[in-house]
Amino acid sequence: MPHTVTLIPGDGIGPEITEAVVRVIEATGADIQWDRRDAGVSAIERHNTPIPPETLESIRATRVALKGPLTTPVGVGFRSINVALRKEFDLYANVRPAKTLVPGGRYQDVDIVLIRENTEGLYSGVEHYVGIGGDPRAAAESVMLVTRFGVDRILRYAFEYAVQHGRKKVTLAHKANILKYTQGLFLDVGREMAKEYAGRVEFEDRIIDAAAMMLVMDPAKFDVIVCENMFGDILSDLIAGLVGGLGLAPGANIGKDASIFEAVHGSAPDIAGKGVANPLALLTAGVMMLEHLGMRDEGARIRKAFTATVLEKDSLTPDLGGTGTTSSIADAVIRRL
Ligand code: NAI
Ligand code: MG
């Protein structure tokens, strides 16, 4: 029986890069049936909404989606469609790997997976102004909401991820020295849970600011990192920078009932339709999706072909210093499968 996957081409460069990625995945012979669905600005014309109910129903049924970037339309009552999708499916774990693929950067062997809590913390959306005297905006407050349920499931996810992917160490990055309650709860639950994994996964905790410095100075000290929502937002861009930036950065949004795989970059309206968008970040997200579906062989073959391709500078797209196109890079990967 084929796996059905919801495919959301999305906006801007989305359709070009998803088409390239679908071609590569299909070339492995992976038994996947795509259920193509609209979302984003491109969905508004046909459905009058950037997130049509049919798209949500499809994800609910298939439980897995590969998604191109979505342009967040201005003035339709959505802060961000991506945030809305995360909320709808309670995608609590944001998994962002950063691995050196193109040599020549500051470090040759970065291999870090950042696991960010994706539903609460400082991004729980509880924010308001405080009026004092005649000034309605004399102060403002954001709540860092941390629940035992929330920290328990993200930490469990991180430890299980380490076990399943043969990773040696989990680093919990936090600020429990200052935020004694919210971050203290995170740290306490982590320390307690680490005991269950003793002998299988090493555990350490680091204060977030010191961890940021250490990541830049000596990334080899890190393996799996787990942290609160905003800390993870910042650190995940930092580690993407260690391995060459957005063009190669994939992300997975994992929930109990559904998971959405995507590139970290946006819809790149400045280069949309020109055929030069780099499909490799979305392709790496596609490999994560294949692994998630248990298609490890197909994923490994793409990874290998991909690694050989990125060593040939000419076949890369202009953002990575090459002269290739979206489809020529897909062809190059397919030739090496
Ligand atoms: P962006 O990531 O789309 O573009 C930033 C720069 O990187 C641009 O110069 C662009 O040409 C380049 N770039 C991005 N992806 C590339 C690729 N695959 N190949 C070659 N060059 C690439 O960020 P920006 O401009 O801030 O956002 C544009 C739109 O995308 C916005 O509407 C934003 O809301 C949306 N967005 C969507 C995301 C998602 O769906 N996950 C994530 C980030 C932004
Ligand atoms: Mg971010």
TrEMBL record:
Q: Boundaries of each Isopropylmalate dehydrogenase-like domain copy? A: 4-333
Enzyme Commission numbers on file? 1.1.1.41
Give one Pfam family: Iso_dh
* Sorted UniProt keywords: Oxidoreductase
Against Gene3D superfamilies, the record matches this protein to:
Isopropylmalate Dehydrogenase
Q: What class of enzyme is it?
A: oxidoreductase
Q: Which SUPFAM superfamilies match?
A: Isocitrate/Isopropylmalate dehydrogenase-like
Q: Where are the transmembrane segments?
A: none
Does Transcription regulation appear among the keywords? no
Q: Which GO terms describe its molecular function?
A: isocitrate dehydrogenase (NAD+) activity; magnesium ion binding; NAD binding
Signal peptide (UniProt feature, chain positions): none
Q: Name any Gene Ontology BP term.
A: isocitrate metabolic process
- Family that this chain belongs to: Belongs to the isocitrate and isopropylmalate dehydrogenases family.
Would you tell me the protein name for this molecule?
Isocitrate dehydrogenase (NAD+)
